[in-house]
Amino acid sequence: MSGLAVEVDSSEIVPLVDEGLGNASYLVALGGGRALVLDPSRNPAPFVELAERLNLRIAFAVETHLHADFVSGSRELAAFGATILAPAASHLATAYRGLEDGEEVDLNGLTLRALATPGHTPEHLAYLVLDGPKALALFSGGAVLPGGAARPDLIGPEQTHPLARELYRSAHQRLVGLPDDLAVYPTHGAGSFCSPGAGGPMFTTVTEDAFVHSFLGGLGTYPPYFLRLRSVNQRGTRLYGLKPPELALLSVDEFRRQQAAGAIAIDVRPFADFARGHIPAALSIALRPAFASWLGWIVPAAEPLVFVRSPGQDARDLVEQCLKIGYENLVGELEGGIGAWQAAGLPVSTIAIRQVDEEPQGTPLDVRQATEWASGHIPGARHVELGSVRAAAAAIPAGPLTVYCGHGERAMTAASLLEGQGRESLAVLDGGFDAWRSANRPISIE
């Protein structure tokens, strides 16, 4: 229910992976029954429960930088007795030990050494774990990822180029001399919008100027909530402990009252269920690992939210995904789901589902990311990334549309956005472009 995939073995470093955000936290056994957790996500339960299973007490919560993509769990772990270690330049509004470049922390036999590695953020630190003089592991945060580094454009446009240069220098001046066989544990990984999505020439002989040009040219878009969470993590936010709040059950009448008062209705059922019948003007964001990213991309954080879900979907997972990106105004869910709405005799809307062996209805609309579009698309399609659909709606061709993405979930989100703006004759391609390609349908590459 935590959304974190945990693999426990006999090693002293255990990754806890958030597949939806593409991030990893790490629990490190220190000896003496103590552990540290590096870059913990908001919900403390997976870390506390894992530590208990391993007969460990979490002594330290360590931050590499002020995160933009999730609410940090360090303050939650501090409530259980952990000491927060973080860059001094992060200026956290909570009790913490601020670390400077080269500063070391005694871990009861092991040593944690802070390495200033600005670039992804100005205050960024990587952490080298040593046993005496021997380097055992590098926790690189966003300074080093598989094939590159994390993006430097989340602070502001005036800092993007300078931070890109800092990325290069961090790699070539601070990290390049480390042992070739040193184990590296990054925070951001595949699927993270903090990652540029393509490998960068970090440790080659390419010049700094060439690196900056290539790296910045490969950056895609990112969710707008990224611009808010750095300050949230700096000042701190509400603590929930091991049990997040439960969604209140709303009668049909109360659900309608909340809508009338301005609450946004979000239907988290699978997209095919949404297509068969949904509350008019509801927004479709299917509950899956990527739910939080698209919620944060499309829905303003302060808005009150009401939900529709299927009985088999995990309400706790829904709440945790909202909270981990700082969405707190969760009013409740429709008691009885869409069935209760229909039983009350209220209207529902439908959206057609098209199969890949059928011709698209009207204009194909591709709402995938730009890199996906560039790798191939349906002939004659128009391209608007899902995150831009609302703003670019006026530029989308009039008339019938067949919306598609990789599989179907993002397409249904886009179709629900367009439906909410009054568009009709909408269809979603079942299985998306992956199914289209697998069926050997025509493909264009531009």
Describe the model.
With 446 residues, the chain is α/β, with parallel strands linked by helices. The chain has three domains: 4-235, Ribonuclease Z/Hydroxyacylglutathione hydrolase-like (Metallo-beta-lactamase, Chain A); 249-343, 3-Layer(aba) Sandwich (Oxidized Rhodanese, domain 1), CATH 3.40.250; 352-438, Rhodanese-like domain (Oxidized Rhodanese, domain 1, 3-Layer(aba) Sandwich), CATH 3.40.250.10. The chain has helices at 45-53, 74-78, 157-175, 208-217, 226-235, 252-260, 271-276, 291-298, 315-324, 337-343, 370-374, 409-420, 432-438, and strands spanning 4-6, 13-18, 23-31, 34-38, 57-62, 83-87, 97-99, 104-106, 111-116, 125-131, 134-141, 183-186, 249-250, 264-267, 283-284, 305-308, 330-334, 352-354, 363-366, 382-383, 401-404, 426-429. A seven-stranded mixed sheet has the order 1-2-3-4-5-6-7. A five-stranded mixed sheet has the order 8-9-10-11-12, with no helix packed on it. Strands 13-17-16-14-15 form a five-stranded parallel sheet. Strand 8 and strand 9 (111-116) form a beta hairpin. Helix 3 crosses helix 4 (208-217). The longest helix is centred in the middle third of the chain and has 19 residues, at 157-175. It is globular. The model is unreliable at 4-10 (pLDDT under 50).
